[in-house]
Amino acid sequence: MTNVARSQFYPTLTINATGGFQSTDIDQWFSANSLFANIVTGLAQPIFNKRQIRTRYEVAQSNQQKAYLQFQQSLLNAGKEVSDALQDYNNETTKLDIRVKQVDALQKAAGYSDELLNYGLVNYYEVLTAKDQALSTQLDLIDNKFRQYNAIIMLYKALGGGWQ
Q1: How far is it, in rounded angstroms, from Cα 141 to Cα 59?
Q2: Is the CA virtual torsion 50, 55, 61, 63 positive or negative?
Q3: Angle between helices 50-118 and 35-48 (to 10 degrees)
Q4: Are 127 and 114 a contacting pair, CB within 8 Å?
Q5: CA 36, CA 33: separation in Å to the nearest integer?
């Protein structure tokens, strides 16, 4: 649209089917319907409407700049969404690895506390506490897997996939 507005600075000469001499008299050449009047107005229009044409051109330039800035903003937002989704996925993967090790350790601890109960070295409350911690950690592991899958979904959406 900026180039369209810029083209209005140049004189225009339109040729249409109504062109032709209305009369051979010289005094009729300057009437509103004459060919000479059409040519003169087409050539002189940029001079008389200079401020209006310049304003249109400045508005078109402003709209072009606005569209460019909106495009840049949408690129930055898209990059941020992808970066955030990748970081979430990496964080959840790291947490998941740690949580798996923690679950294994607490399950071993619960098994050892069962053996210690059989030998009478601990009371049943300590066994229940160890099993409760193992179960709680398993639930946290499931939550970490959910968050990792959710991060994959968010990454897919940030890259343009999905239905919305």
Answers
A1: 58
A2: negative
A3: 50
A4: yes
A5: 9
Whose tokens are 């401020």? That residue is: 51
Asked if 50 and 5 touch (Cβ cutoff 8 Å), the reply is no
Hey, what are 74's tokens? Answer: 């949408």
Could you tell me the CA-to-CA distances from 5 to 11, 39, 51, 62, 115 in Å, in that order? 13, 21, 12, 12, 88
List the Cα angle 109/134/100 in 5-degree steps: 95
Whether the CB-CB separation of 150 and 91 falls below 8 Å is answered with no
* Interval 95-138: pLDDT, tens: 999 999 999 999 999 999 999 988 888 899 999 999 999 999 99
For 62, what's the count of Cα atoms within 13 Å in the CB-facing half-sphere? 6
Single-letter amino acid, residue 148: Q
Nearest to 48 by CA among 4, 9, 6, 2: 9
Question: Alpha helix (H) ranges present in the chain?
Answer: 2-7, 35-48, 50-118, 124-158
For residue 74, CA distances in Å to 65, 67, 81, 86, 101 come to: 14, 11, 10, 18, 41
Cα separation, 134 vs 104, whole angstroms: 8
pTM > 0.70: yes or no: no
Question: 111: Cβ–Cβ under 8 A, 6 or more apart, which residues?
Answer: none
